[in-house]
UniProtKB/TrEMBL annotation:
InterPro entries noted in UniProt: HTH_HxlR, WH-like_DNA-bd_sf, WH_DNA-bd_sf
Domain HTH hxlR-type: residue ranges: 12-109
A single MF term (Gene Ontology): DNA binding
Name listed for the protein in its UniProt record: HTH hxlR-type domain-containing protein
Organism of this sequence: Paraburkholderia largidicola
Pfam family, one: HxlR
Keywords: DNA-binding, Transcription, Transcription regulation
PROSITE patterns: HTH_HXLR
Amino acid sequence: MARVVEKAGTVCPVSRSLDVVGDRWSMLVLRELYMGAARFEEIQIQTEATPQMLATRLKSLEADGMIERQPYSEKPLRYEYRLTEKGRAFYPVIHALRAWGETWCKEKHEDIAVRFVHRKCGHDVGLANVCPHCGEHVERKDLESTLSSQFANERAERRAAFKRK
C-alpha cells in the first residue's frame, strides 16, 4: 500500500487506481487474463504489445499485487501469469468498460463482441452484472463466454500473423 501512496502523492482513490491500471496496455493485459490467457506469447499476440512493453506491464502488475507468476516449465524456466484476489476484484471495472464500449464505441450494425451466459441458469446476461433472468449478481467466474464471429476471427488473425513473423 505504501508504494501506491508514494506514486500517487494523493489520497484520491481514482488517482491511486490509475497508478496501477491507468494505461491501455495494463488494461489489455488484464482483459486477456480474464479471457483465460496465461502465457506471455498469447498475451502478446492479443494485445499486440512489444515484448518489452508487455514485460514492463506484467512486472508492474505483479509488483502491484494484481497478478502472480507461476512456473510452468523448468528448462527453460518459463512462467504463466495468474490473477490474484486483487486482480480478480478489478473485473467489475473491465466489465463496465466493456458495457460502455458496446453501447457508445461501435457501429449500430456490429454484434456484441463477447456474449456472457450465466452458468447457473443458462441465460444471456447482456451487458449487465445482474442476470436478467434469475436476478443474481454475477462475477466473471459465474459466466460462460462466447466470442462473436468477428471478434473470434480478429483474434485468430492476430495469432496467424504472429506465427508468420
